[in-house]
Amino acid sequence: MVVSLLLAVPAAVGLWLVSGGRALPVRPARWLALLTAVATAGLAVGVVVTEAAVDRAWLPELGVRWSFGTDGISVPLVLLTVLMGLVVTAHAWVEVPAGGTPATFLGCLLLVEAGALATFTARDAVLFLVAFEVVLVPMWVLVGRYGDPHDPRARTEAAQRFVLYTAVGSTTMLVGILALVAAAGTADLRELAGGAGAALGPGAQMGVAALLVVGLAVKVPVLPFHTWLPPAHTTAPTAGSVLLAAVLLKMGTYGLVRLPVATVPDGFGRLAPVLAVAGALGIVWGGLVCLVERDLKRLIAYSSVAHMGFVVLALASGSETGLQAALYANVAHGLVSALLFVLVGGLKQRWGDVDLAVRRPALRETSPRLGFALVIGLAASLGLPGLAGFWGELLAVYAAWAPAADRPRAVLVTCAVVAAVGAALAAAYALRVAGLVWAGDRPDPEARRTADTVGVERWVLAGLAGLVVVLGVAPMLVLSVTADAVATVGGAR
């Protein structure tokens, strides 16, 4: 019952806001969305603490069950999702973008949260796909309707590209899931991971794994399927960028763990070298683009491509350490990217644009609180020890350096070296941004001073920065939760 409420509360309120409640004034709509996010967070904590689950017939003719629950793999992502729900609904007190009614905007945020929670708790492969797809429409509305008001054509093209890429990836994944379920005779993810999927022949495993990996790689995104992400981030409202980076990308990597890694481990193992190479190239490519990118928001988007490269590299290693690294890096990137996108969104509100070529006063002088948050975010992004980004990158490179016995060591070690070079590039572009924005290498005495953060925005930035530090100092908060579940995943040997 509690699990069903966890999904029903944000979904019901979100649907009402985008339909019957569209005329609701902005202040009541904000309060309703925030209180819904608080209630959802409370329900999530209850589900995690009590290990509540639901499992009952839903579509018996198709063998699909209404089955939801959590384990060590999904718990960190469930908590991350409800935290981001609180962040974006609280941030609505700072910014409700034009383009439609405030109620519709807030309703779409809640619908994205509900779909993500259903994805991370689904225990049925078909149910997982349905939940995965639920997120598509509200995110399309957030990008296409509430995106950058100064460039309608860009936001329309970004929304269309997002839908096209995601739809193609989901269709590919659908074929893989149907083939897996038809061959194994069950859609239960626990049975599939317990050996039902592994009972397939080598050729069938390879084919199913290829379909699932390609379909999910679009959502991660993995090079070369990443080209939809920077335009979507650049034009999306701040709340949309936060959900996209901190939640939606994690649905792709979570799906890789739940489906190909756990259910067809041998097939995934044969594809792992290709995935590792793609991840390593994504790390370097993202870093190189960030070195020359002028738009700060697009720069953060390309840095996400690089950081997700570490996640897929860790998964490709095939070891328990690699899975631990991937799951930890998912959470760490979610917090760091949310911090940076809230910060950059605030700067865009103040400046009108975030072009790094424009001369502006140094944040450290005019806006010390914003400047400090920027330094924390950039330091975590480059993998500074003591902050959340460090452990994910370190463990990912270590896992690739010492992969599972059935993985080609020469390929993985080469990818580890390339990833280490990519980490150095991250330090270079983070220092470039810090020099231009925080230190003000090119000050303009006639430029307008930047207003510092106050009110809700200050608390949102302080909370995210604090969690980035806490997770960097105490990574076992996540690693201890995922350890037991990782040991049972078929792909970790």
TrEMBL record:
Enzyme nomenclature, EC number: 1.6.5.-
Subcellular location: Endomembrane system; Membrane
Pfam families xrefs: Proton_antipo_M
Main location: membrane
Membrane topology label: Multi-pass membrane protein
Keyword Cytoplasm among record annotations: no
InterPro entries linked: NADH_Q_OxRdtase_chainM/4, NADH_UbQ_OxRdtase, ND/Mrp_TM
GO terms, molecular function: oxidoreductase activity
Residues annotated as domain NADH:quinone oxidoreductase/Mrp antiporter transmembrane: 122-402
Membrane-spanning segments: 33-54, 75-94, 100-118, 125-143, 163-184, 196-218, 271-292, 299-319, 325-347, 368-391, 411-438, 459-483
Keywords: Membrane, Oxidoreductase, Transmembrane, Transmembrane helix
Family: Belongs to the complex I subunit 4 family.
Protein name per Swiss-Prot or TrEMBL: NADH-quinone oxidoreductase subunit M
